[in-house]
Design brief:
This protein is an alpha/beta fold. Among the domains are: 1-68, Roll (SH3 type barrels), CATH 2.30.30.30; 118-318 and 698-723, Tandem AAA-ATPase domain (Rossmann fold, 3-Layer(aba) Sandwich); 347-451, no CATH class. The strands form 6 sheets. Strands 9-10-8-11-12-7-13 form a 7-stranded parallel β-sheet, with helices on both faces. Strand 27 (910-919) and strand 28 form a beta hairpin. Helix 4 packs across helix 5 (175-186). It comes from Streptomyces lydicamycinicus. Residues 127-297 form the Helicase ATP-binding domain.
Length: 1059
């Protein structure tokens, strides 16, 4: 422990601090509290015996480590060419130290393989505007790029030291897709814990070891993790910096396994990101419960949340939102038409229609003898099963017969089984009808085996795929076919291949794949990957609604066929969004097979399905999202609403119209409630949050605790010009950053997520950003490249690596040492093996080359994987982190290098120092980079080290190699204690700014928590005890985020005049 009054930090040391533990020196990489008063410190060895080794120290065992005194810093002359070693060290220091808690501008907008689109940066800005906990519900409509928005936010959290431990939870089919995006776009490796991944990891770690402590950044499926019996104890034993839950609408049902999982994770993480294109289902209590996972204090009345209570926690845009529409013209092909394809029922199908019309639909109430729950809707369930297929009809009828006590006998339970012997009649009218329907289904099955004419939709589908889409052997065209029923999908998977021309069963099986919830997660991910590659064999993907949730199917496909249609605007939109999304280069085309009938009273597909198709297309054209007008915000509830309306004798037109709370034509005419230019009352919050939401200025009346910790000037679309930004760090007082707009000082273009390389953004950007100090180039991309190359060239222990290093322009290749190869262990084993990453790694710093590598993986006929053969080295890439760690260990052991500059640049020695105030978590609350000169005089001068001052001092890539020989020990060493003293004096002033910007708002929040604790909250889950528990937890977190202890001070380098 440091002595009182020593001026050394008295709390847990922040990242970048040099400490002494067990008589060895270590560099802190991360630190955090395990329990009250006990900390874990992750470090890497710096002294000779432990150099390069990683370790975790527990203060409960080792005590608080000794922090090495800055006054004892030795000055050493830098004799490297262009003072490259000094710049290498300064750049590494800058990279390792997290941005301060008070900094809310974006720092990595130029560090990812993305087009720079402001609307995709907006969620990160909104989340970071919260000084307390970055928590957000991203509710953008299908296709806008929520995964990319999540990646941007995670990157910014990592840069702030708030993303060391990350957990991403997604639907199973999306696991590899999400993992792929995080790695290829953001250089962020996540270990995938699917069913195979978990088994592999359990073989590697000690028995009983928690896999979530073994890996720090994990992606896992919701279905895997919801097994509370197996994973609950592990999850409750781990603290996360950030948790992401994709498709979060699956959490709405209180009491479900998924919701229980979400509640556990919400209490075990700092940052929480929920993502869903349908954020709520219209049941406001359920939605409020979800919101309270983000902020328990946000909503006072669970049944009636107000827009101002939700604004700081949610952002939602549609395709027609101004900020979206103006940048997507060349990145998202216009949507094609939704065209109905009417097919006339066959004779056998007409018999089914007649049976349904006479027994079930003429008087639907008959379908509910002693009905319970939704059983009164069974006539329409039965109808919809037939509109899907004869096999689905058979399965529905069989299940109903079993419920009525008339189960089909063994040997006759499948549609392909022979008909049972004996009569098919029954005294019960409904039972007799169901038996007749099962027999009709069998007859259709037998007739279909001889050709397609017995099933009109199959005839229509084959004609559409073969003649219009041009699917078949030797052709590249692809299509997605949706059906609601698993029985239908399985049947189509069997009968389609030969009808489309594949005569070899193996070829047909490879070309047509079936994907539904009964298919394993790894198989589903394989299908999605193959369907996205030009060289893949899959030409027709038959999928259900659940299995395709969140999946990108647009890379090689722009044709989608609805084999059957949900009676839901939302589900039709979600289906269409699989190919109608950001990055689609061809206008997506939608077709729907509609079975028609001449039977009087038959409710064929023209009755409801065709009208739903037309309304979805109309609403999407006008508003960009159907949820903006729907009565219900859940597909199942919409289906039920239609059925209830039909049961109540509404016409089909009335039933479909009732899905919309406000007719879209009213919005088109500017007359809808809340429509622009109207004086109508604001729409209810449930519809506000399904339109564009959370993008404007914070509304009046926000809860008091929100005003305390959310920067209103940064919250939404109302930022001023960059020069007018009210940054949380007073740049006139201190700080290491200056505000800038994107692209200033650089010539880097964006990398396209499609096949191009991006284009500059036309409108002036209002996204707040920070321009960090850079010591190799003003261009972030060039600076990153030169930093890595300098490290590879200068680090003494990389001599062997240099022998096999190949550098060609912006590309480089080398054999990774073991300590680097270990960092790639979290990537998919197949990818690591195929690309030989552990044997030789191929890197590129060029966005254009990286985009081309992605394109080749997707488009080349010989490609067997979507994973690229060259890694884009973004800001978060493991190679950059590896170089950073090695540089700090090699050159950061209580010594500072001396550089010589022109006499006119530094007539007096200039000490470059750094001061850091931290909180109890070990994360910086305020950082100062300083240039101090005129030491030893009566008026020493301290200036903020800005990029402009750094250039004025002559520090940069064009520094001359050598000046006169220097003897720092004799001339400069006596000034080190003076430089430390001046830095500490300046840090006292910086502390006052930190008090204003960080600590005072947090104290206001703590007072707000105390007041909230006394309130009575209707509908708060768990009642008053849970409210008190939440208040205690929030108060503890707020207290730990306040600045504490003494500042860390470091002498980084000295500039002296050369001659």
């Amino acid at each position: 422990m440091s002595e009182t009054g020593s001026g050394l930090p008295s709390g847990v040391p922040p990242a970048g601090t040099l400490i002494e533990v067990r008589d060895e020196e270590w560099l802190v990489r991360n630190s955090g509290e395990l329990r009250t008063g006990e900390f874990a410190i992750d470090a890497i060895g710096a002294s000779e015996l432990v150099r390069g080794h990683t370790a975790r120290f527990l203060t409960a065992l080792d005590g608080m480590p000794r922090i090495l005194r800055p006054e004892d810093t030795r000055l050493v002359a830098d004799e490297s060419d262009g003072y490259r070693v000094s710049r290498l060290f300064l750049e590494a220091v800058r990279r390792r130290l997290p941005l301060p808690q008070s900094e809310q501008g974006l720092a990595l907008t130029e560090g990812f393989l993305l087009d720079r689109l402001d609307y995709q940066l907006r969620p990160a800005v909104k989340a970071l505007a919260n000084r307390f906990q970055p928590r957000l519900l991203i509710g953008d409509v299908v296709g806008l790029g929520k995964t990319l928005e999540i990646g941007i936010l995670l990157g910014e959290l990592i840069r702030r030291g708030r993303g060391e431990r990350i957990l991403v939870v997604t639907p199973a089919p999306v696991l590899e897709q999400f993992q792929h995006e995080m790695w290829t776009r953001f250089s962020l490796p996540l270990v995938r814990l699917d069913s195979v991944g978990i088994s592999r990891i359990e073989r590697k770690i000690p028995v009983g070891r928690n896999p979530f402590t073994y890996y720090k950044r994990v992606i896992v499926s919701m279905d895997t993790l919801k097994n509370q019996k197996r994973y609950g104890p592990w999850l409750r034993d781990v603290e996360w910096d950030a948790v992401v839950i994709d498709e979060s609408h699956n959490l709405l049902n209180r009491g479900s396994d998924r919701r229980e999982l979400a509640e556990v994770l919400a209490h075990k993480t700092d940052a929480l990101v929920l993502a869903s294109a349908t954020p709520h289902n219209g049941e406001m209590r359920a939605f409020t419960g979800l919101v309270r996972l983000l902020d328990p204090m946000a909503v006072r009345d669970a049944a009636r949340p107000r827009a101002e209570e939700l604004h700081h926690l949610m952002v939602r845009r549609t395709k027609v939102s101004d900020e979206v529409a103006r940048v997507l013209e060349d990145k998202w092909a216009p949507r094609g038409e939704s065209r109905p394809l009417q097919v006339r029922a066959s004779e056998l199908e007409e018999e089914v229609f007649a049976e349904l019309a006479e027994v079930w639909l003429a008087n639907p109430e008959r379908g509910r003898p002693g009905a319970r729950g939704d059983e009164h809707l069974f006539p329409y369930v039965l109808l919809k099963s037939f509109l899907s297929s004869h096999r689905a009809l058979f399965a529905t009828a069989r299940e109903k017969l079993a419920k009525l006590g008339h189960a089909l006998p063994e040997g006759h339970k499948e549609v392909t089984d022979p008909s049972p012997a004996g009569p098919t009649e029954s005294p019960a009218r409904e039972v007799a009808s169901l038996l007749r329907l099962t027999e009709l289904a069998r007859r259709i099955e037998r007739a279909a085996a001889d050709g397609t004419n017995a099933t009109a939709k199959l005839t229509g589908l084959v004609a559409e795929l073969r003649d219009h889409v041009k699917v078949g052997p030797g052709r590249a065209a692809r299509a997605v076919v949706f059906s609601e029923r698993r029985e239908t999908l399985n049947w189509l998977g069997t009968v389609l291949p030969p009808l489309l021309g594949w005569t070899d069963p193996k070829d047909g099986e490879a070309a047509v794949k079936v994907m539904h919830s009964g298919v394993s997660d790894t198989v589903q991910m394989g299908y999605v990957d193959e369907f996205a590659r030009a060289g893949g064999d899959i030409r027709v993907l038959l999928t259900g609604d659940g299995a395709s949730e969140g999946v990108n199917l647009h890379r090689q496909c722009h044709h989608l066929v609805h084999w059957d249609l949900p009676w839901s605007l939302i589900r039709v939109e979600q289906r269409n969004g699989r190919i109608d999304r950001y990055g689609q280069t061809r206008p997506p085309e939608f077709r729907a097979l509609l079975l028609t009938s001449d039977v009087e009273g038959a409710l064929d597909d023209r009755t409801v399905a065709e009208k739903v198709l037309a309304r979805e297309a109309k609403v999407h054209e006008v508003l960009g999202a159907v949820e903006a007008v729907t009565q219900e915000n859940d597909g199942a509830r919409e289906e039920r609403r239609v059925m209830e309306a039909l049961l109540g004798r509404a016409t089909s037109e009335e039933a479909v119209a009732d899905l919309e709370a406000v007719p879209v034509e009213a919005f088109e005419a500017g007359e809808g409630d809340g429509a622009p230019g109207t004086d109508a009352a604001a729409p209810p919050v449930e519809r506000l949050t399904m339109s564009e939401f959370g993008t404007g200025p914070a509304p009046v009346g926000a809860p008091a605790h929100v005003a305390a910790v959310v920067d209103g000037t940064r919250d939404g679309n109302t930022f001023g010009a960059a020069s007018d930004l009210d940054l949380d760090i007073d740049l006139d007082d201190f700080g290491d950053f200056a505000p800038t707009t994107a692209g200033d000082g650089t010539d880097d273009g964006g990398a396209d997520t499609g096949t191009g390389t991006g284009s500059p953004q036309a409108p002036a950007s209002d996204i707040p950003t920070v321009e960090e100090l850079r010591f190799f180039s003003a261009s972030p991309e060039r600076n990153r490249q030169e930093f890595v190359l300098a490290g590879l060239a200068e680090l003494p222990d990389l001599g062997g690596l240099r022998a096999g290093l190949t550098v060609t322009g912006t590309d480089l290749s080398f054999e990774p040492p073991r300590d680097l190869a270990d960092r790639f262990d979290v990537l998919p084993p197949g990818y690591v093996r195929e690309q030989g990453i552990t044997r030789r790694i191929n890197l590129t710093f060029s966005r254009e080359d990286a985009a081309d590598s992605l394109r080749r993986a997707r488009e080349d006929a010989g490609s067997t994987s979507l994973w690229p053969d060259a890694h884009y080295v973004g800001e978060l890439h493991p190679v950059v982190e590896w170089i950073t760690d090695k540089v700090l260990v090699e050159y950061g052991r209580q010594r500072a290098l001396v550089l010589q500059v022109g006499p006119e640049k530094a007539p007096d020695p200039v000490f470059l120092t750094q001061g850091v105030w931290s909180n109890a978590e070990g994360r910086p609350t305020a950082v100062a980079w300083l240039a101090i000169d005129r030491l030893g005089t009566s008026a020493p001068r301290t200036r903020e080290l800005t990029p402009a001052l750094l250039a004025a001092l002559g520090v940069g890539p064009d520094m001359p190699d050598h000046w006169t020989p220097s003897d720092p020990a004799a001339t400069l060493q006596p000034l080190v204690p003076l430089a430390v003293e001046e830095t500490r004096r300046e840090m006292k002033r910086v502390r006052e700014v930190a008090e204003e910007r960080v600590d005072s708002p947090l104290r206001d929040l703590e007072r707000g928590i105390g007041e909230w604790r006394q309130q009575t909250l209707p509908g708060f889950e768990g009642g008053k005890p849970k409210q008190q528990e939440a208040a205690d937890r929030l108060a503890r977190i707020a207290a730990r985020l306040r600045t504490t202890g003494e500042p860390m001070v470091r002498v980084l380098a000295v500039l002296e005049a050369g001659s």
